[in-house]
Amino acid sequence: MANTVDWPVRVSLVEEGGMTTARAVLDTGTTTFTGRGTARCSPEDPDVPEIGDEIAAGRALKDLAGQLLRVADDDLQEVGAAPPRRENRMAYGWTNALA
Questions:
Q1: What are the two backbone dihedrals, phi and then psi, of residue 55, each rounded to the nearest 5 degrees?
Q2: 79: number of Cβ within 10 Å
Q3: What's the alpha-carbon Rg for the chain, to the nearest Å?
């Protein structure tokens, strides 16, 4: 039997003085995680706020993903099912194609 769970993520962006700050909040129903990211417009580049939004939001979501993977690692260790810890390990089931 399939089990479906929704985890809403809310991304908030603030642009000020050529810098964009993003906050991504994930509510799992039992825990809330917050990822953060920033982007700064170089003085030589044209000011395109949408690009800053994309970069800052992407960084906040990447931070959020890292938090989730660390929690999953800890949970796996608690039940004795964790793979050995390695530096620069990619997410489960994926290898580093660039290595």
A1: -65, -45
A2: 7
A3: 17
Within 10 A of 39 (CB to CB), how many other CB atoms are there? 22
Q: Are 23 and 11 in contact (CB under 8 A)?
A: yes
> Please, which residues have CB within 8 angstroms of residue 10's CB and are 6 or more apart in sequence?
24, 25
* Residue showing tokens 């809330």: 32
Q: Which residue numbers in the chain have pLDDT < 70?
A: 82-99
Residue entry with tokens 């620069």: 88
pTM of this prediction?
0.78
Looking at residue 61, its pLDDT comes to 98
Closest to 45 (Cα-Cα) out of 22, 21, 20, 18: 18
Per-residue exposure over 55-65, b if at least 16 CB sit within 10 Å of its own CB, e if not: bbbebbbebbe
Q: Estimate to the nearest angstrom the gap between the alpha carbon of 8 and the chain centroid.
A: 14
